[in-house]
Amino acid sequence: MSAATLIDGRPGDQVSVAERALQYGDGLFETISCVDGAPRWLPRHLQRLRLGCERLQLPFTDYEVLAQEITALAGAGSAAPARCVVKVIVSRGAALRRGYGPTGAERPTRIVSRHEWPAGDPTAPLHVSLSSVRLGTNPLLAGLKHLNRLEQVLAQLARPPGIDEVLMLSSRGEIIGGSMSNVFLADQTGLFTPRLDACGVAGVMRGLVLQASRARRPVAPLRFGAVRVRRVMPSELPGVREAFVTNVRWGIRSIGSLDGRALASDDYAQQLRRQMDAAQ
Amino acid sequence: MSAATLIDGRPGDQVSVAERALQYGDGLFETISCVDGAPRWLPRHLQRLRLGCERLQLPFTDYEVLAQEITALAGAGSAAPARCVVKVIVSRGAALRRGYGPTGAERPTRIVSRHEWPAGDPTAPLHVSLSSVRLGTNPLLAGLKHLNRLEQVLAQLARPPGIDEVLMLSSRGEIIGGSMSNVFLADQTGLFTPRLDACGVAGVMRGLVLQASRARRPVAPLRFGAVRVRRVMPSELPGVREAFVTNVRWGIRSIGSLDGRALASDDYAQQLRRQMDAAQ
Q1: Domains of chain B: total
Q2: Which of A202, B59, B193, B200 could form a cystine bridge with B176, CB 3.0-4.6 A?
Q3: Domain hosting residue B44, numbered range
Q4: Which B residues, 184 through 243, put their C-beta within 8 Å of a C-beta on chain A?
């Protein structure tokens, strides 16, 4: 699966069966896009990881060495391809006793692995539909990229043929985002994206888009105001003119069809892509 | 942490970092009580595991060899103690690609480990309080003993000193059960236990208690009707006269204090214990 893996800094591909990430999904992860041998938006990934560790009371502190390992793997090998993905898992560590409650003395384990950049046309608009799998809500976990991902696994298992990504609703019936992406929607009132205070993952690319839309001195002038972050209901979908999903691999990826209805507009996505390219 | 572990039948204590149980919590587990070298209620554990595999579309089929491994570990060693715990994890297997969606060709991994029986007085009534950590709801996962357990980890982290177990509410505000147990409550109308159709784990001991209460020809005559399985709200707690929690390690364990209020009655628990002992 991976070309290279470091476990607590040492090459390897095995971990203890006592790892709490394995036993309970007790940990966090990051998926980092790497271009020309360097990780992109690394400070943002580390910032989200830090927030997750605080919220889970997971006493990981080795951010500097982790950043070095990510950078090393991103540029590893003389024949490093132009793009790759580096994945980080931070587990609370090997359990010191059986049971959900950690002792507090566990030593967190970091797993850093390099993966090939997925094949496929990176600009083709996506076919997106609504998933029948909903997301349970828990404000304590909302926004975090934690390792409890069975709902996303089930959503992928239920993804219909020909559909690239599925939008998931919360158990309250609100649209939250894609199974592996965040979603932005535009209707006649402008651009908006779901609140993630009850469930969902606050993606790094989502944060970049929100920041770009709020910039006071945009490199390219924005014709629209800040993206509104709000509750989004499925009943709003018929009024949507344009939609895109975001993650660090896809960037800003236009939705060509949403629940079977073609979306022709790409205006917001194009403008945001131009602005973010210019800002780098 | 464990005295002995079998991974796909071979002694070992390491698994691949590609295991989907580690990457996404994509798997199930069972915790089996073993007495005098033999696992108790093994068919029920395997039945719940089978249900979980079906619901998660996890193509595990090696139930017979798994049963043999559990039995072997339960009785392993000439100096095997009278009681031990055998834990089973079934992971969907090592990922064949990155991403939430399995290919369908993964080979499930089984991890069977023997653990010491926890110390402590097994009959002392427990001090129980309500947790501030709630359970997200998802009917697709409700009842299963799956590996996405961060909510239980957070509940244990927030467990106050002197409290043995915490009762968790769903995000809808209903009482679901303990962080590592099911709960039964009695008021003037009789004995009842929460429905688990939205979240929670349907414990093996809970199933045994429900079966005992429904027995048409009980070994010892029951003075009460079948336990009612229904929605339970925290507002009902002041009317509760007796309460107990169940899991295969605790059996039927009385609650001595519930959210600071002493509960003196032990009638239902004693009668159920007698009946279940006599039925064996």
Answers
A1: 2
A2: B200
A3: 4-116
A4: 199
